[in-house]
Specification:
Helix content is about 65%, strand content about 5%.
Length: about 500
């Protein structure tokens, strides 16, 4: 099928050559000599790779990473059964981690796939930015991806978030290509990567839904003329749905029950906090710098409305749709900013367009380098401290303190019980001669204490205690009946009697 050009139904309004920006910003065209774009991209990939692999095993595993390790150790069929039995995360990432464990179970091995996914995302961001506007925007988007503290942190986290980001970025890339070219193969690739994203993390479905709805809304004014394009979009979407059918039939009922519950989630954030929290993380967790990023995105979005109304609407619609949906869902399920990690794609595309405004004052190279410099300055404060201390609880350090305190025959109780996962990764009750238990509420604790005999009971507590028991009764019992003897980051060790 022939490629669509500006003004034709089904296409973004853009020039015939997809690499050439609109003529009203001609002095920004090809800000650098052609070969420099590839060189600059290679430098950004190298920089992003260094930031993602540097100190990859430095932080100890936290709760969710330890859960990843335990699930990955299971056979393929057992991983699927664990998901089907009530798990809320699809199995694709755990299957991939299972393969990786042939190299061992160290922190570095467990985090290797997320780090690789984060590096591969950098050129994908470049291609998406180039497709969205031009090579200059692609370079800025790639730079933002390379140095983003948000994306670096989860590239060093043995969870599925960065892999999901990569697949959503690929789906977005082929979505943008399909909107321009109207080629069936682009729509099918969009469907394939959409399915991979959902198989990696369920919340990716929100990103995919925003793209599909945007396309339908963009085509609505010329609905009859767009029927061929709607058919191709339907084919790509159907491919994604068919590939996700095993998840739909096996795991989705659990997810629906979870998200439609009338009981508020015990952890995570609700309402506007999910929006402000996500925006703040995109700016390296600095509330002041967050407004710099928002200003750049707003400037880029307004500039995009001037250059191409459909693309301006794309940036605005996807952002608003994701935030509004997340706002609503936050009152029915656990909602954490990292679930929205894929929003970095659209956010950086908007920021990338803002260089066009700087072109009014600077020549092309200066405008592009100016926006990249701002992104580096925004990221610098967070990156300066990121590698110097633990990001989450230091279970490695705590295990050493616990072993120094306990003796043979003692009882070690994890409160709540599931925090035993990261503890057991570093601490061996068998080697130390202790007995391990888990407890979630006061009655379980009292049962352990009553059956202790003359043995000492050590309680390992984290702030997850409030997620397991929002009433605070369990924490109050420990405060009244035990004595605090050690603390490592947010992990507390107390003793009874």
């Amino acid at each position: 099928m022939k490629e669509l050009v500006a003004g034709e139904p089904g296409a973004f309004r853009r020039p015939r050559d997809p690499m050439t920006p609109p003529t009203d910003a001609g002095k920004c065209d090809d800000a650098f000599p052609s070969g420099w774009y590839l060189r600059a991209l290679v430098i950004l990939i190298a920089l992003g790779g260094f930031l993602r692999f540097w100190h990859l095993g430095y932080n100890s595993l936290w709760l969710d990473e330890a859960e990843t390790c335990n699930l990955a150790l299971m056979p393929f069929s057992a991983i699927w059964q664990a998901m089907a039995g009530g798990g809320l995360t699809p199995p694709l990432f755990y299957w991939a981690e299972h393969v990786m464990l042939v190299f061992g179970t160290s922190e570095t091995v467990l985090r290797f796939l997320p780090a690789v996914s984060g590096v591969i995302a950098i050129p994908v961001f470049y291609l998406a930015g180039r497709e969205f506007l031009d090579k200059n925007a692609g370079l800025i988007a790639a730079a933002g991806c390379a140095v983003s503290p948000f994306l670096i942190q989860y590239s060093q986290d043995a969870r599925a978030y960065t892999a999901a980001l990569l697949f959503v970025a690929c789906a977005t890339l082929f979505f943008l290509r399909a909107m321009r070219s109207a080629r069936q193969e682009d729509w099918l690739l969009f469907g394939l990567f959409s399915a991979l994203a959902v198989w990696t993390h369920f919340y990716s479905a929100i990103a995919i839904a925003s793209l599909v709805l945007y396309a339908l809304l963009a085509w609505l004014p010329h609905l009859k003329a767009e029927i061929p394009n709607i058919a191709m979009l339907s084919a790509g979407t159907c491919l994604a749905v068919v590939l996700c059918l095993p998840l739909v039939f096996t795991l989705l009922p659990t997810l629906v029950t979870y998200t439609t519950s009338s009981v508020p989630a015990a952890c995570g954030v609700q309402g506007l906090a999910i929006i402000t929290g996500t925006l703040c993380q995109m700016a390296g967790s600095d509330p002041v710098l967050m407004w710099v990023m928002i200003a750049l995105f707003a400037a880029g979005t307004l500039q995009m409305f001037y250059l191409d109304v459909r693309k301006g609407f794309f940036l605005l619609f996807v952002t608003v749709f994701v935030f509004v949906t997340s706002y609503i869902l936050s009152y029915h399920m656990t909602m954490i900013s990292r679930y929205l990690i894929f929003l970095n794609i659209v956010f950086l595309l908007g920021i990338a367009v803002s260089y066009r405004i700087l072109c009014l004052f600077l020549k092309g190279p200066g405008a592009v380098c100016g926006v990249i410099a701002i992104l580096l300055l925004v990221s610098a404060p967070s990156l300066a401290t990121y590698y110097t201390g633990p990001v989450y609880e230091d279970w490695r350090g705590f295990a050493g303190k616990l072993q120094a305190q306990t003796g043979p025959g003692d009882i070690v109780v994890s409160v709540p019980g599931y925090v035993s996962q990261p503890l057991d990764y570093y601490y061996s009750a068998k080697i130390d001669g202790t007995t391990g238990y888990g407890a979630t509420n006061v009655s379980e604790i009292e049962k352990i204490v009553q059956g202790r005999g003359n043995r000492t009971v050590w309680f390992v507590k984290t702030f997850d205690i409030y997620s397991a028991d929002p009433t605070g009764q369990t924490n109050q019992w420990l405060s009244n009946h035990t004595r605090l003897v050690a603390q490592e980051s947010d992990i507390l060790l107390s003793v009874y009697p």
